Amino acid sequence: MIATARMENSDAVKSTTVIGSINPLTKVVIIACLAVVGLMSNAWYVLGFFIFSVVVVAINRKLGSFIKLLAIGVLPMGLLIFVLDIVAWPSGQEYWQWAFLTVTEGGLAIAIHYTARFLMIALAVMVVIFTGDLRLFCRDLEQRGLSSRATYIIQSTGLILPQIVNRGSVIMDAQRSRGIETDANFFVRMKALLPSAAPLILSTLTGVAERASSLEARGMTLTGPRTSLINVPNTVLDKLILALSLVSLAAFIVWKLI
Question: Would you say the pTM of this structure is higher than 0.85?
């Protein structure tokens, strides 16, 4: 099989934002380096990284979804971690006490420490999600020499949760069409969820098998040169930023250890 000449960039890589035009791997490395620095810094770093995250996601025009996920998923979990840590590690000066709950100086310090670490990791993951494209990231890894099977595993893993959510929505709509009530109180929803679990699991497993057969038929296991409709650019500026990020991270780690 003879590979054709590399094609021009498709619409998939022609981003309308400055953030979207950065090489996917470069963005991931930058955010990962900032996250590692945050894990080795004090809690005030998280505030700075939050401001950075909001600005970057706003430039990429996805601020609404970012704030929604932050408010619904991340902040409640962070609050829960803070409360559990603050009462589970009583030490030092006592600030407040009620029944078996005690807030102390040591517990407050530990709660701030672990909550800041959680928020740091969560914000980093969210920035990667709302500024990147998983398909372009996997394609970029292929261009760098990674096996197409490995990139497919990465991509399918990242997409499995949205696919399950979509299948769940379809199954719940089918249950409603049969007259099963799914929009009442919590107990009614749980009762309607149980009959939906089996079809969801079976359809997910069936989808995996069908996808494997489809990939086999399309030459997933064939060897030799391949041609893709997507070419992810990796400019000199991208390479320079990537190298500077790694060097800066290494210098920071050395400085912290000295």
Answer: no
